[in-house]
Design goal:
about 400 residues, alpha/beta, 11 helices, 13 strands, globular
């Protein structure tokens, strides 16, 4: 078992404040990868905005007890949209701007592409640092790898453990034959490869490191931003056998090399459990009551990858609802720092670009003045239920040149 130490960077980052509640809430953003509308428990065979009559949507339910319980403590976002694929959505999240303005989309960055998110774009963690936050990324990046200036610790993160590309083997951590697992804290160096990983399953590694980061956090009075960017349930469909066994007999083992729904179900169960481990760490550390927790998927489930978006049409890489309307919810703090209504559903129109102004202005009380013109809207008042959303439209995707 490997034992990296991201938290060492925190000691220098944390200011000399007395222990206790932070002046601003911690923010934990859990991002799933290729997770479909009908893959989350509370949407399956249940009344929701896409299934108002509560008709049967699957004959093979995949339970997600952790996600269901967290959603019930917060606001289910039933009219929430993203882009059609990984890179463009992650770009909107980090910049608050559409791909048509940043130039990063509608296609994803490949390992051999000589570009990334333009250096003139201001990133969410940069702005949160200006408001006193420590900032940490665990998991998938996918916003540029060809130049070290495009990598996470150059773009505002104090620490990074994960993969820089869009996908990789969950055990060997290789992408196109090359090791892509990296662990770094230096703001002026390409994050070095982590070779001593022991073939630990990626989702387990990320959850373990998130718990370590939280439990060894040196000063809980310093607000933390944790971007828990899982590469699951993206292909390749890989998961330890015991999680496949959970669904044997209840989920059909469909045909297709590496595309079995049974494996996808196992990955969903592992993801649900991993998020529970992170939440348990926050509770053990005494940080949970002061934490805003957000969960969503970067795009709809890929139909060819055994994702389920039913009854929405289409999937990943399409502009149909199944490709761009995803499971999402947000939970406010249990304390008075940033509470939100509990066990409610919001039909306010929202988009992944909204999180930058919402977190920076609405939650952290910071400024977005140095950003280029934002496409995102501060949705905090709409989430609180004290105002209507100011968003009236969304630009889903712009066609590639010549299309």
């Amino acid at each position: 078992m490997w034992t990296p130490r991201l938290v060492a960077a925190l000691a220098g980052a944390a200011c000399a404040a007395s222990a206790g509640a932070p002046p601003k809430p911690h923010i934990v953003l859990a991002l799933a990868d290729d997770y479909g509308w009908n893959d989350i428990g509370y949407h399956q065979n249940a009344v929701n905005s896409a299934n108002p009559l509560g008709k049967v949507t699957t004959n093979a339910v995949v339970p997600t007890p952790t996600l269901d319980a967290l959603a019930a403590e917060g606001v289910k976002l039933e009219n929430f949209y993203v882009q059609t694929t990984c890179t463009p959505t992650r770009g909107t999240l980090m910049t608050g701007r559409y791909p048509s303005h940043t130039g990063l989309g509608p296609l994803v960055i490949r390992p051999y592409n000589p570009y990334g998110m333009p250096l003139g774009e201001v990133f969410l963690p940069e702005l949160l640092k200006e408001s006193g936050y420590s900032t940490h990324l665990i998991g998938k990046w996918h916003l540029g790898v060809c130049d070290e200036r495009l990598t996470p610790t150059y773009r505002g993160f104090d620490s990074f453990l994960g993969i820089l590309n869009g996908a990789g083997d969950f055990f060997s951590h290789k992408s196109r034959g090359y090791l892509d697992l990296r662990n770094g804290t230096a703001a002026d160096a390409f994050p070095p490869a982590l070779t001593a990983h022991g073939n630990q399953y990626a989702t387990d590694m990320y959850a373990e490191e998130a718990r370590r980061l939280i439990l060894q956090y040196p000063d809980a009075s310093v607000p933390m931003f944790l971007y828990f960017s899982m590469q699951t349930v993206h292909t390749p469909l890989q998961v330890p056998q015991r999680y496949i066994d959970l669904h044997t007999g209840s989920v059909p083992h469909t045909t297709g090399p590496g595309r079995q729904r049974l494996k996808k179900a196992g990955m969903i169960s592992y993801m649900d459990e991993a998020i529970g481990r992170v939440v348990d760490g926050l509770k053990e550390k005494g940080m949970w009551e002061d934490t805003v927790f957000l969960f969503f998927s970067d795009n709809g489930g890929p139909i060819q990858g055994e994702g389920s978006n039913y009854p929405l049409r289409g999937g990943k890489k399409t502009n149909w609802e199944g490709g761009i309307r995803v499971p999402a919810f947000i939970k406010g703090t249990d304390s008075a720092l940033a509470p939100l209504p509990r066990n409610v559903t919001s039909m306010a129109l929202m988009h992944s670009s909204d999180w930058l102004p919402t977190f920076v202005e609405g939650v952290a009380g910071g400024s977005t003045a140095r950003c280029q013109s934002l496409d995102g809207h501060n949705q905090w008042a709409a989430l609180q239920g004290t105002a209507n959303t100011t968003r009236t439209s969304i630009v889903h995707a712009m066609p590639a040149a010549g299309a």
